[in-house]
Amino acid sequence: MNKSYDAIIIGAGIIGCCTAFELAKKGIKTLNIDKLASAGDGSTGDTCAIIRFHYSTQQGVTMAREAYFYWLNRGHYLGLVDPAGMAKYVNTGCLLIKTKRNNYGKNFMTCMDEMGVVYQELTAEQVEEKMAVIDSRQFGPPVRMGDSRFGSPTADRLPGAVYIPETGYINDAKLSTKNVQTACEAKGGTFLFNREITHIVKQKGRVEGVRLKDGTHILAPVVVNAAGPHSYRINQMAGVAQGMNVSTRPLKVEVSHVPAPDGFNYNCLGMMITDGDVGNYSRPEIGNHVLIGSEEPDCDELHWIDDPDTYNKNFTDQWTVEVLRQAQRIRGLPVPQGNFQGLVSLYDCSDDWIPIYDKSDLPGFYMAVGTSGNQYKNAPAVGVLMAELITACENGRDHDREPVSYNMVFTKRTCNIGFYSRLREINSDSSFSVVG
Ligand SMILES: Cc1cc2nc3c(=O)[nH]c(=O)nc-3n(C[C@H](O)[C@H](O)[C@H](O)COP(=O)(O)OP(=O)(O)OC[C@H]3O[C@@H](n4cnc5c(N)ncnc54)[C@H](O)[C@@H]3O)c2cc1C
């Protein structure tokens, strides 16, 4: 047997690092173990790192709003300036295109009203005034590339949009994760890289630690699954998957990366666009580029992955579909031929695209999983949530019967952690897409 810790966190992505940081702040001796070489090398390193507020549920908006203030007050949150450099929040504003599928933005606006998030409703004409390269015609509902309707407008004007001034992105997601690692280490946390967990060790009906691929045992009375797209495997190892009503599985996604329209300073004048009318989201990217991802329109097939270690990382038609769809909305967007830039990655997707932040049926084993392509922004608040949950449960609280809640620092709202339960019914308020 090797050393022992109070808590082992499986994964050093943004969720695992933020969870460890909050536990370490409580004086808990933490160890993050990751099979990759450094913090944020997993799916966090591929994130578009968009910080936004529009979610389909009130809890989603509240969590995003709470976490936003951690990003804004980053130095205060971390308690140090990382010698490696500090990741920064870049504000862009957001255009949320109204569609029938998103109920013309009404649910988002109701939830944002509750949280005091400022927004402005725009007509199609005002959308073009906000961003000169926007084509405000309606093209949706989205169709596949081979459809004869692809690229043709379906109405002269969009139903309008919602402009949300406070939206942006973090300029370097890996560095932001490293920053949390550094802050965690300053509080006594430890990290072990290039080591893979192959077994969850149990003793007398509770978790006792983990076993690594090289045979090393490491002991801890608390183990947290923050393994991102591998989360389902870790739950299987722990034998807790059967006791969950909501499950997780890896979903393959592609992000396209193209130059901005010639002569348009997208870094200064571009915005995040969440555009169910063409089926995409996009944001400005450093170097006058545009990052484009899919919002999973009904016409697209989802690519579920059996093995997150061996899936095909080549671009497919999806790359081209996303760029062509975005070119409907952004006039003059170049469509590079044969020069695919961007990335292929995995979401750790839950059945309802809402995360699972919970205990499990195995005492001492917890999970922060199912982040569904939309929880990078929430990670600082998730760290707090997980630390509250773990300390309450380890002090004897039966969270399944009497859900733990706590007061959020910035928004002064009560967070009912039971909302994220593995035992919940599938949440029908969800968008069942990356929007959450
Ligand atoms: C393309 C893309 C775009 C996204 N865009 C956004 C966005 O704009 N805004 C937003 O809020 N969210 C976004 N997300 C979602 C967000 O990035 C994720 O929710 C978040 O990064 C997940 O962090 P994580 O720590 O759970 O997972 P990861 O970063 O994947 O970390 C899990 C870690 O666990 C390790 N691990 C797994 N199994 C083992 C094992 N057996 N032993 C040891 N280590 C193990 C892995 O190596 C990995 O490093 C996006 C995601 C993707 C993929």
Produce a short descriptive summary:
The chain is an alpha+beta fold and 436 residues long.
How many beta-strand runs? 23
Residue share in β-strands: 15-25%
**Distance between the ends:** 42 Å
- Mean pLDDT metric: 97
| Low confidence ranges | none
Largest sheet: 9 strands, mixed
**Structural class of the secondary elements?**
alpha+beta
- Distinct ligands, ions and cofactors found in the model: flavin-adenine dinucleotide
Rg on CA atoms, Å? 21 Å
Overall outline: globular
Q: Count the DSSP helices.
A: 10
The percentage helix is 10-25%
Write structural notes for this entry:
- This protein has 436 residues and is an alpha+beta fold.
- 24% of the residues lie in helices and 24% in strands.
- It is built from 10 helices and 23 strands.
- The strands form 5 sheets. Strands 5, 6, 7, 14, 15, 16, 17, 18 and 19 form a 9-stranded mixed beta sheet that branches. It has a 6-stranded mixed beta sheet with strand order 9-2-1-13-21-20, sandwiched between helices. It has a 3-stranded antiparallel beta sheet with strand order 3-8-4.
- A hairpin with a 2-residue loop joins strand 10 and strand 11.
- Helix 1 runs parallel beside helix 6.
- The radius of gyration is 21 Å and the shape is globular.
- The structure holds flavin-adenine dinucleotide.
- The site of flavin-adenine dinucleotide has 39 residues, from helix 1, strand 2, strand 14 and strand 19.
